[in-house]
Specification:
With 142 residues, this protein is mainly beta. The protein has a single domain, classed as Beta Polymerase, domain 2. The protein has two helices and eight strands; from the N terminus they run αβαβββββββ. The protein has helices spanning 15-26, 37-40, and strands at 30-36, 50-56, 70-75, 80-83, 92-93, 100-101, 106-114, 127-139. It has an eight-stranded mixed β-sheet with strand order 5-4-3-2-1-8-7-6. A hairpin with an 8-residue loop joins strand 4 (80-83) and strand 5. The radius of gyration is 15 Å and the shape is globular. The model has no long low-confidence stretch (mean pLDDT 86).
């Protein structure tokens, strides 16, 4: 499987995380992998994790997180989503992200910006919905 990044930010992805993403791409049920989150949207810091969105054929089910520093959000053919490492009670409809594919390599969605404790002053929630862009890393062909 070959990961094609349409983002220069992905060029700095650590080899270990890149290898896990290539492993996910090689799974027969994987249809596509998208680079999402703060790093994909030029809001990442050196402490930011790497986030990918995986569209697949299999129903989402709880599985252990693969490694620290990589969040894998899975979406199944029924439109359910679940982050690896989370329990079944956290399965949610993917439609809440407002996903719109805008081109072959890009999509937009409503992401969550998490506030550090010092940034929460006067805010009711620890997160805020923000417009985000996703960048295609892999798509099954044929």
């Amino acid at each position: 499987m070959s990961i094609v990044a349409f983002s220069t930010e992905f060029d700095s992805c650590p080899d270990g995380i890149r290898a896990i993403i290539e492993e996910v791409a090689s799974e027969s049920a994987t249809n596509a992998i998208w680079f999402i989150g703060s790093r994909a949207n030029d809001r990442g810091t050196p402490e930011s994790d790497w986030d990918i969105l995986v569209f697949g054929q299999d129903e989402v089910a709880p599985v252990p997180a693969r490694c620290a520093g990589l969040d894998v959000l899975r979406v199944d053919r029924s439109g359910n989503s679940l982050l690896e490492g989370m329990s079944e009670r956290l399965i949610q409809p993917f439609a809440r992200f407002g996903w719109v594919r805008s081109s072959k390599e890009r999509a937009s969605y409503s992401g969550q910006k998490f506030f550090k404790s010092e940034e929460r002053e006067g805010k009711n929630q620890p997160v805020e919905l923000v417009p985000c862009e996703a960048i295609l890393l892999y798509e099954k062909t044929g």
